[in-house]
Amino acid sequence: RGLSARTRAIREWQEYEEALRKKDLAQALRLLTESIPSSIGGSGTPRWDRDLEVLDTCLNADDMRLVGSAYTFLKNRGLLSAFGKYRNIVLEGPREVTPQVLKSSTGLEVSKLSPKKWGLSGSSNLVLIALLAGMSILVNQGIDIRPNLVLILGLTMLDAVFLGGSCLAQISSYWPPYKRRILVHEAGHLIVAYLMGCPIRGVILDPFIAMQMGIKGQAGTQFWDENLQNELAEGRVSGTAFDRYCMVLFGGIAAEALVYGEAEGGENDENLFRSICLLLDPPLSTAQMSNQARWSVLQAYNLLKWHERAHGAAVKALENGGNLSSIVRRIEEIVS
């Protein structure tokens, strides 16, 4: 009987590994919750390590409630002690955050925390200057590139209109400083979402995949807040759910500000924030939206500052192509 139980457990682990390979979250989660004994791990790997790998199937799941169930299961197993550790931070501290308060807390002007248009600041500014300098040199050498330039600008416009800028984003992502800034930004979303208890579906760094998944911008971190979704479905949004969502939304801008001293990305995050503000009843005024944005950035900035090691580890893991389970594992090792 003991041998039979052992054989059955091994077979179930093999089924679990097959579900992981197929990125089948529903099947993997069913096996974890119903079949596989908690005392046995497959392939000689520690059980908790294999359990976490269910998170790597979340990106292929269409049902975000199923993603939430995976996090709840792992949380109940005691594997995600840092998940949601700071969800009550939205109830703490003053609500009024003026530009002066923001500067005294972060050392940064409000303008440093606003997304920049490409070519107007930071690394993109250097690229634009180099491009213009190169064009000038070629013209002085008698090489007229203006006809080609018109073609390039036309293609860029078509890319922006029909592909959401994915082609230009793909090309830009090969430039190391630009690519790292994207990683810093997305890791900011990821860390804040995780610590605030918002299940993370995955981090998409390929612009074309992001476009196919309906994400506006060069990359995206998909997270879910069940409370906010339920409240939006009922036509209402509580302050707590809205505050938590805004903190995660501004986590990327806060991360860039913390690491680089200013934010360049995050324009789509701001647009999404404004659209959510208009769904509130009554909608927020312009002054209220500005204050909410400053409050959210400050809260996210402080949370990331407290956990710089975890954020740095997430950036490194993304840079090395790490999957979601390996990033979560590093967060737990550092934060818990």
UniProtKB/TrEMBL annotation:
Name assigned to this protein: ATP-dependent Zn protease
Gene Ontology molecular function terms on file: ATP binding; ATP-dependent peptidase activity; metalloendopeptidase activity
Record's keyword terms, sorted: Membrane, Transmembrane, Transmembrane helix
TM stretches of this protein: 126-143, 149-171
Classification via SUPFAM superfamilies: FtsH protease domain-like (SSF140990)
GO biological-process terms attached to the record: proteolysis
Species of the source: Genlisea aurea
Signal sequence, renumbered to the chain: none
